[in-house]
Design a protein that fits this description.
The protein has 196 residues and is of the alpha+beta class. The protein has one domain. It has helices at residues 3-34, 90-96, 127-136, and strands at residues 42-45, 48-51, 57-67, 75-86, 100-115, 140-155, 161-173, 176-180, 188-189, 192-195. β8 and β9 form a beta hairpin.
Length: 196
C-alpha cells in the first residue's frame, strides 16, 4: 500500500472518530444546557440528536416537553415529532454553554392542555404563553416556527378530550425575548407574527 494513501486513510479515520466523539459530547451537553435553569417550568428531552453536516444545524427527534409541577391547575404536555435548530453559534455554546440560535422550528407538535379543577388558578389563562415563554427564553433566539401543530384540550378529572385544534402554523420573526407581551400566543415583542 502506498505510504501517502495509508496516511490519508489514517487521517480520514481520525477525523471521523473525532467528529463522532464531538457529536456524542454535543448531544449530552445540549440536553443538560437547555434544562440548566433551576427555575424552569418544563423539562425538554428527546430520543435522538442529529448533527447536520458541517455543523449547520441540529435536528431533535421525538421531543417531549413535560411540566415539572403538576397540580390541580392547567398543565400542558408537548410532544414534537422533530425540532430543527439552525444558526446555532457554536463558539458560544462550546465555550460559554450559552445558546444563540437563529431559528427553532417545531414540526408536527401536539400540545395536550389538561384543564385543572382549581377555579382560583389564574395561570391557566396564560398557560400557552407561559409554555412558550419558558421554552424560548432558554437562549437568545431570533425566529420561532410551528408547522402543522395541534392543541388537544382534556379534562383533568375524566381525562376525556373535549376540544381539538389542528393544522396550526405559527411564524414569529425577530423575537425580542427580553420584552414580554402576553397579548400574543408567542409572548414577546417581535417584528412579525403569522398565525394560521
Amino acid at each position: 500500500m502506498n505510504k501517502a494513501l495509508k496516511y490519508f486513510l489514517i487521517a480520514v479515520a481520525t477525523l471521523f472518530i473525532l467528529a463522532k466523539g464531538l457529536e456524542w459530547w454535543l448531544e449530552y451537553t445540549f440536553e443538560s444546557t437547555i434544562n440548566s435553569n433551576p427555575d424552569r417550568a418544563y423539562n425538554i428531552t428527546y430520543d435522538d440528536f442529529d448533527l447536520h453536516t458541517f455543523f449547520k444545524g441540529i435536528t431533535l427527534y421525538e421531543v417531549l416537553i413535560e411540566p415539572l409541577k403538576t397540580d390541580s391547575g392547567t398543565t400542558i404536555l408537548g410532544k414534537v415529532d422533530y425540532a430543527t435548530i439552525s444558526g446555532l453559534v457554536w463558539v458560544d455554546f462550546l465555550v460559554n454553554k450559552s445558546l444563540h440560535i437563529d431559528e427553532i422550528s417545531f414540526i408536527k407538535p401536539v400540545f395536550e392542555v389538561t384543564i385543572g379543577t382549581s377555579k382560583s388558578n389564574k395561570t391557566g389563562e396564560n398557560s400557552i404563553q407561559n409554555l412558550f415563554q419558558d421554552i424560548l427564553t432558554r437562549g437568545d433566539l431570533t425566529n420561532f416556527r410551528i408547522e402543522n401543530g395541534s392543541i388537544v384540550l382534556k379534562d383533568h378529572t375524566s381525562k376525556a378530550t373535549f376540544g381539538n385544534f389542528s393544522k396550526i402554523n405559527v411564524s414569529a420573526l425577530n423575537l425580542k425575548t427580553d420584552s414580554v407581551q402576553l397579548k400574543h400566543i408567542i409572548p414577546f415583542k417581535m417584528d412579525d407574527l403569522t398565525f394560521q
